[in-house]
């Protein structure tokens, strides 16, 4: 059965979530609402995968219910971004990230750019130690037009690899060439690091910027 992934009009989100609750089961806990120039999806928990995702576009996170954590690799170092309920966060492109959603009842909005087959690629990466992230264990790139169809084969390939069995990198761990480079230079500006690293307080922002909502 195929679904028309274009929003035809206003949606009552609570009703939509209930109608699609079976989609919010592990391992992806994910349901796409709209897919055209932008991919609009909602993600629940629990979801504690150990792979890091790489893509060429920014990702927008709005944590609507519960909290989530977003380990990222920034300038070669593991950093943890905590996004609490009601906060938003914009992740720059080409930065490895591993969304962690431990709460079963959590719900977050994620917005990404649509992928064009033959042009856009995603990467999945595992490290020998998820908490340290100092050695890459295994990494592959692929076109991702559908999570279940395109991600599951990559995960199975990793789980069947010698690197997974031994937790030891090899000369096959990382492709000799990749479709895009990882961003190893972008850093959160020090003047706003406390705001960015702990998400964005939407309720606190709107009263002070009412001019943006007045017209």
Description of the molecule:
This protein has a single domain, classed as Jelly Rolls, CATH 2.60.120. 17% of the residues lie in helices and 30% in strands. With 215 residues, it is of the alpha+beta class. A hairpin with a 2-residue loop joins strand 5 and strand 6. The chain starts with 12 loop residues before the first helix and ends in a 7-residue tail after the last helix. The strands form three sheets. Strands 1-2-8-4-7-11 form a six-stranded antiparallel sheet. It has a three-stranded antiparallel sheet with strand order 3-9-10, covered by helices on one side. A two-stranded antiparallel sheet has the order 5-6. The chain has five helices and eleven strands, in the order H-E-E-E-E-E-E-E-E-E-E-H-H-H-E-H. The chain is globular and about 50 Å long. This is 3-hydroxyanthranilate 3,4-dioxygenase. It is an enzyme of class 1 (oxidoreductase).
Brief summary:
With 215 residues, the chain is α+β, with helices and mostly antiparallel strands.
Over all CA atoms, what is the radius of gyration? Answer: 18 Å
Tell me the strand percentage band. Answer: 25-35%
Structural class call reads: alpha+beta
For this structure, the CATH topology is: Jelly Rolls
CATH superfamily: Jelly Rolls
Strand neighbour order, sheet with most strands: 1-2-8-4-7-11
Span of the ends, CA to CA: 42 Å
Question: What share of residues is helical?
Answer: 10-25%
CATH architecture: Sandwich
Strand and helix order: HEEEEEEEEEEHHHEH
Low-confidence stretches: 189-196
Number of strands: 11
Integer count of domains? 1
Overall shape? globular
Q: Please identify the top-level CATH class.
A: Mainly Beta
For the largest beta-sheet, the strand count, sense and barrel status come to: 6 strands, antiparallel
User: What is the oligomeric state here?
Assistant: single chain
Number of helices: 5
User: What number is the mean pLDDT?
Assistant: 88
């Amino acid at each position: 059965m195929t679904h028309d992934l274009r929003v035809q009009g206003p949606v009552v989100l609570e009703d939509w979530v209930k109608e699609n609750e079976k989609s919010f089961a592990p391992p992806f806990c994910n349901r796409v609402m709209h897919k055209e120039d932008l991919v609009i999806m909602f993600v629940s928990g629990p979801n504690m995968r150990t792979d890091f995702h790489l893509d060429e576009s920014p990702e927008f996170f709005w944590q609507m219910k519960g909290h989530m954590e977003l380990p990222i690799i920034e300038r070669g170092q593991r950093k943890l971004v905590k996004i609490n309920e009601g906060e938003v966060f914009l992740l720059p492109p080409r930065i490895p990230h591993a969304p962690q959603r431990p709460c079963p009842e959590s719900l977050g909005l994620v917005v990404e750019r649509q992928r064009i087959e033959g042009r856009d690629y995603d990467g999945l990466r595992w490290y020998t130690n998820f908490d340290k992230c100092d050695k890459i264990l295994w990494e592959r790139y692929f076109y991702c037009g559908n999570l279940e169809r395109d991600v599951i084969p990559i995960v199975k390939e990793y789980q069947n690899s010698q690197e997974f069995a031994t937790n030891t990198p090899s000369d096959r761990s990382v492709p000799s060439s990749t479709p895009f480079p990882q961003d190893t230079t972008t850093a959160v500006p020090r003047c706003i690091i406390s705001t960015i690293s702990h998400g964005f307080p939407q309720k606190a922002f709107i009263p002070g910027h009412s001019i943006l909502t007045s017209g």
